[in-house]
Design brief:
alpha+beta; Heat Shock Protein 90; five-stranded antiparallel sheet; five-stranded mixed sheet; 14 strands
Length: 347
């Protein structure tokens, strides 16, 4: 009886310490019955009917008992079949001959960020190789063609094109990295969306004129949001330029701005090549291109829509697409409007 009380006291003291640290922990006896658990362990659903719910955790405890040492592993965990899977870092450590404490940390987000970072680095390495290799070959060709003015001009133009592509790629990589880190470049202020759209149209006008595409803008006035004006302008510009690049000559790109009382919607509509349903799920991924051959011709980096997505997320909004192959696409950037304005314009 005394031994049992002592075991419970050790378990209670250990859990009390974990509560102070806001840590997730469970203490088990020699039969792997749960004696005590922290409140966060309850929230995670680690225990059910006095037992650990995860077979992997039970195996971890058995391994710690067998080896008489602390064992740490990264495991997949879900509360039940309908729950979202989590990645956890779990450590099983002996507290005494009978007791084992299991410490758990949810590392799902950290794992996702690490995978994203690795994927990002791999993509960057791959994307940078193409223009860098092209520039290297063109500089060699220039040296060989020094006595041939026609070839010299041809290679020089190609070198300039690849240099611009490399500069644009590096610039957008830096911009995307900053946005993903949640670093809003300018001050958070009240932004007149119609003015931001007008500025984005002006910035896209040269590209549209060079491709023979007309931009039409019809927007409501007095629609404002709180945000980073430069970042929002860049996001709108990316949508417009994307529509222009995937439109044929002599076509039009339409831009509309409306509000439903809670959100403002900026719609960019084109009559371009359209996007298949399976591609619509991926177009906001970094470096993904609907038409790689067209991107090579236009100098597209495959980062524009990814920047739009993260800019929307950073402002509490979202970006969506509706498209039909051969008909065209409509991209909608939704942003929460300024609160005072929302109160004045009930839905």
């Amino acid at each position: 009886m005394v031994k049992s009380q002592k075991i419970k006291q050790v378990a209670s003291d250990a859990i009390a310490f974990l509560e102070v640290l806001d840590a997730v922990g469970v203490v088990l006896d020699a039969d792997n019955q749960v004696i005590d658990q922290s409140s966060l362990a309850v929230q995670m659903g680690l225990v059910e009917y006095g037992k650990l719910t995860s077979a992997d955790l039970i195996n971890l405890v058995d391994e710690a008992r067998t080896n008489r040492q602390s064992i740490k592993k990264e495991l997949n965990f879900s509360k039940n079949l309908r729950s979202v899977k989590q990645v956890i870092s779990a450590r099983a450590t002996l507290l005494s001959e009978e007791l084992v404490i299991v410490l758990v940390e949810d590392v799902t987000e950290a794992k996702r960020l690490e995978d994203t970072r690795k994927d990002f680095v791999e993509n960057i390495s791959h994307e940078l190789k193409t223009p860098i290799s092209a520039i290297s070959l063109l500089t060699e060709a220039l040296q060989v063609a020094v006595d041939d003015p026609e070839q010299l001009t041809k290679f020089a133009k190609s070198l300039q094109r690849e240099s611009k592509r490399l500069g644009s790629l590096v610039s957008k990589i830096i911009e995307l990295s900053r946005i993903q880190a949640g670093d809003l470049k300018g001050e958070i202020e009240v932004c007149d969306l119609s003015q931001l759209v007008i500025e984005a149209v002006d910035l896209s006008q040269f590209l549209a004129d060079s491709r023979g595409v007309k931009i039409n803008f019809d927007a409501s006035s007095d629609i404002s949001v709180m945000g980073d004006a430069s970042l929002l302008t860049m996001a709108i510009k990316n949508l417009i330029e994307n529509a222009v690049l995937y439109s044929e000559s002599s076509s039009q790109v339409g831009i509309g701005l409306i509000t439903d009382g809670e959100f403002a919607e900026i719609q960019v509509i084109d009559n371009g090549i359209g996007i298949s349903v399976d591609q619509q799920e991926r177009i906001f991924e970094r470096f993904y291109r609907v038409d790689p051959s067209r991107s090579r011709d236009t100098g597209g980096t495959g980062l524009g829509l990814s920047i739009v997505k993260h800019a929307a997320n950073n402002h509490g909004g979202e970006v969506t697409v509706f498209s039909r192959v051969g008909v065209g696409s409509t991209f909608t950037l939704r942003l929460p409007i300024q609160k005072e304005q929302s109160d004045e314009r009930p839905e």
